[in-house]
Design goal:
It is built from 5 helices and no strands. By secondary structure, it is mainly alpha-helical.
Length: 154
Amino acid sequence: MSNPSPVHSMNTSTVRHDTRAWKLQVWVSFGLAVTLCGTGLAYLPGEDLHRAFMVMGYVFCLSTAFALSKFIRDNERERSDTPMWSLVVWGGFGLAMALTAWGLYRMQINPTYKAFLGVSWLFLISTVFTLAKTLRDAHEAHLADARAHARRGE
């Protein structure tokens, strides 16, 4: 059996797209995680200052998780960023997670409420990575479709 030439396989390959069901599941999970975190933080017992710091921690974790996801994907094939940028991205994510965990651990609230906040926070972070990958895959599939149409002269 002979292997097809790269040109032949490139012309006959199809672009894989995520199913609508997968996209719906990803968005519903992300929305549910945001809703659970928002609800937990909105009704957080204690002072407004504590609530504000926890909201900032969750937002910091959210934004650094998206940044880390993009950084990892951008450097998947070859390292294109500087070591300092790598330190900033990984350090920012690590710092956000550590400080938020520390703040949550140190809070003087009911352990059940603390567990709810912790689990919803980790759910949020995991859904961020899944959402970022799904969005990036859709973007790359769109670009591949555009290149395929351009090659065919459409």
